[in-house]
Amino acid sequence: MKVCQKCHTPARYDTQKFCSVCGTPFPDMTPAEPAAPARQPAQPVQPAPQAPVQPPVQPPVQPYAQQPQNPFGAAAPQPEQPEQPKKSKLSIIIAAVVVVVVVAAAAAVFFLRGSKDNAATLPAAEPVATEAADAATPQTPAPADSAAAAQTPAPAVTPQPAQTPAPAAAVATDTQVVLRNAAANGTITVDGKAVDFAYVGNDAVIPRSSLSDVCQVRIVADNGNGGYKTAAVWYNKDYGNELTFGADYGAYTDCDATGLAKPGDKVVDVLTWAFYRSFQEAINEGNSSLLRYSTADNSTLCAAEIRNYTGNTYDLGNFQAVSDPASIKYTDSQVIYNGHFVANYTDSGSSYTADHHRTLRLVWEDGIWKVDAFSLLPDGAYSSTTYAPLP
Fold first, then answer.
1. Are 312 and 347 in contact, with CB atoms under 8 Å apart?
2. Is the entire prediction scored with pTM above 0.90?
């Protein structure tokens, strides 16, 4: 059996003249006539075809795709026609493909250049070319008798307005307070008085100058059902300039137009602290007008008690005033609950601690909750269900 002297591939049949892998002639091949030089692409010589000799049993042909590609770009042999020189035929095929591509490109360029002038005379059998020419030159209307005129024009595309990106969240600074989760179209009050603010997305931004160091902030907005909803927070300058409606201080709750609704437990608790701090400050200064979040009636009653503590100086940075959530009752637009109070003070140079319980009553007045009663519970009488007598 013949073996290729170059790649050592055995011949598939005895009459095979070229290696089916690399195309090298077998040693015993004697060309019938001199082959044309392989390196003359201008005048390739087509050797005389020879009748293929079919072997009795031809082994399966291995796909050429499995053979490694020649990195030097030499033409690969065609195993289906072993009796013909492969390089000459491949050169002819490549030349033919190049000619077809060049002719097609030239025709396309010629067609595109002449389509505008010939759009009106194109036959009806070529509507696609006419439509392409019309689309390329929309400023020149096609004649009435052209094929393009007979076509239904595509509907005009209405430009869509640019989408407005959602504004970035507001940033709290030393000069502005940011209230997150602010309901749309709302009114914001600080200690019951409406203030100016601006929406930034879902945030409300209020100038820091509109708030005192400790204050009650409330929003009232449309609830979507023909009524109103509200949420409140307490601002304290020592705890930052960013707060969130409907979070720690209680969720949004349906209310009347003024914002009256059952307060959250934390709203009650901070109100207890804020009122008791002002009570101690009023004692220190001997001035009951310093009472905050207090009705006129309650301030009058507290003024008499304040006179009993003349000479005491209370530490406003070291005291306790907390509500008992289990004792909170909300009835008839009033809140009644018990609180625990611990005060540290000095009298005549000596330090003391006062520890006691009181019952408080809150009422809705001027758009905020205020203390309307502040009564001492007897020692040992405190429980979550025991309340002091209220005026």
1. yes
2. no
